[in-house]
Structure prediction request, 590 residues.
Amino acid sequence: MGRTVAIETLKLAKAFGDVKAIEHLSFQVWEGEIFGLLGPNGAGKSTTLRILLTLLRPTAGHATVFGHDVVQEPDRVRRLIGYVPQERAIDRFLTGREHLLLLGSLYHLPKDETLRRIREILKLVDLEDRADHLAKTYSGGMKRKLDLACGLLPNPKVLFLDEPTLGLDVQSRLRIWDYIRRLKERGITVVMTTNYLDEADHLCDRLAIIDGGRIMALGSPAELKAGLGGDVVSLTVGAADMDRVESLAKSLKAVPSIRAISTKPSGIDIRVESPEKALPAILDAANQQACRLEFIEYHRPRLEDVFIAQTGHAIREEFPSGE
Amino acid sequence: MARAQELAMRDYVQEVSALTMRWVHRLRREKFSMLFTLVQPMLFWLIFFGSLFQRAANSEVMQAPNYMSFLAAGVVVMTVLNNGLSGGVDLLFDKENGFLERLLATPIHRSSVIISRFIFVMTITSLQILVILTVAYFFGVHPATGLLGIAVVLLIGMLFGIGLTALSMAMAFTVKSHGDFFSVLGFLSLPLIFLSSALVPLSAMPTWMSMLARFNPMTWTIDAVRPLILSGWSQALPRIGMVVMLLLVFDALCLYGSTRAFRRAIG
Ligand SMILES: Nc1ncnc2c1ncn2[C@@H]1O[C@H](COP(=O)(O)OP(=O)(O)OP(=O)(O)O)[C@@H](O)[C@H]1O
Ligand SMILES: [Mg+2]
Prediction:
């Protein structure tokens, strides 16, 4: 295929004292793709990113960015990357433009080049009219835009984004997705972390599902879903019969065409080879357990189903609606 | 090779000046705090404390024409102490809110962030010392060694300030939270002032206090600055020689500590 490797990690590990943040992490990112690290809080996503950014030394293993080792040649790596941190790493007492001017000097750009890039980037992220206001007057979304602008200033070959849309409203999220796709069109390799399944699904060309510091699955969203095979039947159980969910799940285990069962607060997800064959058996079982079903649907596997199948749990706690 | 070094030097100057200007921008934005936390407290000490104890202080014991002229050296060095000890706090905030990571992900020399802070703190401190000495002048405190003496005061202040700022940075990179930082700061600064020759000469202290005060770098520094203001070169020179040696050792220790703390903090 002849694709260029942008990033490669080999058995990467990082421990903080006895906390093993990541372990045995090996993956490759191709040049020009959007690569996602998908995982719940504390999975080790930011830690992985920090190692690639040369901010943390791994306790074991290797990582390279365009062939440069992050430990041996940190300066070479730093010249290739841009970073959009998870926290809004913004100086409240500087204006947006002053942030970018500062970074221009830290990347040793000539003044006119810095000014040219600032003009272009401010337009791209749509922050021109607020560029000369202090950052402390910015809304959350504007701070995120400034973050993104800072990441783009060095004109990086690889842009690292740590949870780029965390806590943003729907419109801002969609707009950020749009920016990220535009970066890809310009040939920038994007490595991002997220704990939003839809974000990983819609935006990433390939992704690594990580949980507890380990890679549980790796591939394009389509591959991951196809790899699961079959369809998912989702049962929503009536509120009165919640206590029967466990026994229903147990009795379903015996049904031959069922591949996997996972319970959630509102009901049961069942992975089946073909819904036509499994459905009568499922309904029978529910009848026998006198478990009233409120709602039944089936769908092709979603990324959520992949996540549950690979890690054994949902990416976020699901809270049953209070009744 | 020389060309490469020249380029590296140019890059270094560019990044250090940009980082230093960042502190200047911030200071300009915080005019209010600039006035009230930087300038006012020290003048307060000088003017009110100086006038308050004018009659109570015995000029025989002080070995000075009046208390304010005795106190001037103390206030100058207290300024160095306060600025130095709090010099690391902005880096602590940078560390806590992730700005430091953003800086360290750029291809700058690791020392630039720290050097910029030294330059800024030393410059601000020197300006404050000049303000204090000017105000003291109007109250009749005329430095015995003149302008050259004032230049030497600034140099000694910097020598002491570098070590203090380094100590403060070491603390900033070591503590778990800025709450801890401020507790340690509060715990350190008053004893350092009272157990020194800032307010009264050692000869006027209870023995146990003067014993402790003798090991306080504040005392060394003040005892070199004071003759520059009060008596003249012949008394000042031997003390200056002494304090420069001591402070160089002090600075070396503090810089070693802060470098280690910095290395550990940035992995
Ligand atoms: N500096 C540190 N010192 C000690 N432990 C740490 C440190 N940084 C991270 N950890 C631990 O390492 C693990 C992984 O943390 P990391 O920040 O990489 O998770 P994450 O996937 O980015 O989570 P989130 O979605 O919450 O940002 C966690 O258990 C965390 O407590
Ligand atoms: Mg994180």
Summary: The first strand of chain A starts at residue 5 and ends at 16. The radius of gyration of chain A is 23 Å.
